[in-house]
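Q: Structure for this?
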Amino acid sequence: MDRVDRPQDIKYWYGGIDTAYRYTVGIAGERFFRELRDTGKILASRCHRCNEAYVPPRLYCVKCFSELKDYEEVPDDGWYIHTYSTARNQEGQRLQEPLIWVVAKHRHVVGGLVHRLTRASPVDVTIGMRIRPLPKEKERRIGSILDLEGFVPSQ
Amino acid sequence: MKSRVAVVGAGMTLFRRRLLETGKELSFEAAKMALESGGATIGDVDSVVMGTAPDAFDGIHMKGEYLSDGAGGWRKPYTRAYVGGGTGVFAAVAGWWHVASGFSDLCLAVTEEKMSSCQPHPQYAFLTIFDHTLERPLRPNLLWIFALEMNRYMHTYSIPKEHIAMVSVKNKGNALHHPCSQLGAKITVDDVLNSEVIAWPVQLLDVSPTSDGAAAILLASEEKARELTDSPVWLDGVGWAIDSAYWTNRELAYPVYAEKAGRMAYRMAGITDPSKEIDVAEVYDPFSYKELHHMEGLQLCPRGKAPGLTADGVTQKDGDLPVNPSGGLLGVGNPIAAAGMMKVCEIFWQLRGEAGKRQVPDSPEVGLAHAWGDLMQFSSVVIMRR
Ligand SMILES: [Zn+2]
C-alpha cells in the first residue's frame, strides 16, 4: 500500500447523494410542538406504572413498555443545568459571541432538552444553575424546537 | 452447548487521513492479511461479517453490499454488522456467534471506513445522526455533544484537565511504535492544554483524527483453530448493550451501556474482578476523556478514579493495567469501524507476544477490547485469552 503524503496526487471524482426529507413529528411530537407553539409550555408524558414523567414526551415508556396517553405541563420552575459547553465556532465560522449549549434537566421529570443558554455570559455559567425556558413571542412560533429561544438564568 | 471460538489471524491497513485505495480495496488488503496470518485462504472461509459505520462517510448508500466482494463475501453467507462507532468490536462479536452457534468453522470479520470521501469534512455527516425534530434544527455538532458529556464527567468527580490530557500524551506516544499509525507523536500535557479550544472543555489534542483504513480478523471453531495454529487466542466473552437514544435522559457522567456490555462479557468469560484479571485493555478512546469514562464503566476501576490512575502511570504500557498500548484512536487513527477492530487485532498481537515495541511486559494472558458508538449509547466488548 502506498503512503500518500500529497492528497493532490490522488485521482478523485466529485459527487453527492441528493435526497430531501419531510419528517413527521409523531404522535407525542404533535402534542409537544402544538403546545409549545400555542401556549409556550413544555409538555411531558407520564407513565403511571413507573410513576415518572418524560421530557421530551414519548408514546411509550422505555422501562415497562407501556403506551403513554397522559400529558402534563412541566412547570417553568425546576429546570437546572445538567452540563454545558461553550464554543466560539460553528460550522467553521468564528462567532462574535460564544455559544453556550446546555443539557437542561428538571427536578420533577425524567429526561431533558439540549438547547442554547441565552442572556448569560460563559463565565457565569455553572452546572446545577437554575434556569427556565424562554419561548419566542407567540407570532414567531411555528411548532419547532426553535420556538424556544433557549433557556435563561432563573434570576 | 456453544463451541469455543478462537481468533487465528489478524490484519490491518495503514490508517491515514486519506488513502488512494477505495473502501473495497482497503477491505481486500486487511482481509488478505488476516487470512495469510491465519494460514487460510478465502476458499476455507464459510461466512463473512462486514463491519462498516455510517453510509454517509464513504458516500455510498448500502455500502455493506458495495464492499462485500472486497471483504471476501462473494457467494458466501455475508452479513453487515453496524452499530455506529461500536461496529469494530461488534463485528468480532458477530463473527463469534457465527462460529459459536456451530454454523461456521471459519468466519472472516472485516471492517472498513473511508471517511475522506465526505466533503468538506466528515463532521457534516454526523449532523444527520441526531433526532430530526428535537435536535437537528439546533445544528448540533458532534464535538459539542462530547464537550457536554466531558464537562459533566469532570464536574461530577472534580477531575483536573491535566489528568485527562495525560491520556492523549500516553496514547500518541504509544502509537509511535505502531507501524500503521497516523498520529503517533511525542507531546506534553502542556501541548494538549494549549491546543485550540474546539468546544470547551474539548481541545484539539483531546480528539482523534478522521481516517481511512481497514482491519480484519479470522475466527475459527476450536477444532479448526487447533488445525491452523499452535497459538490461538480464545474469544471467551462477548457483550453488548444499548442505552436510550434520548441522550439527554442519561446521567452523562457515567456510561451505563459500557457497564452492561462489560458485565455480560465478564460473566461469559468467568471474570469476577476485571481490574485484577484483565492484563491488557484496549478501551475506546475517540476523545481523551472517553478512555477514562469507559474504564470506569467497564469496572476496570471505581467511578471517578481513572484519571488519578492515569496520572500515577498505572495505564502506561509497563503499568499494572496497560490501556491502549496500540496508541488507540488518538494515536493510531479513527477510521470508525476499523478503529474498533484495530483494538481486537492489538489484543490478539499482545496475547501472542507479537506486538513488537508495543508489547506489554510479563506475557499477558487476558485482554479486553471495547468500542462505543451510536448516539453515545452503545458498547461492544470482547474478552480474549491465550
Ligand atoms: Zn413505565
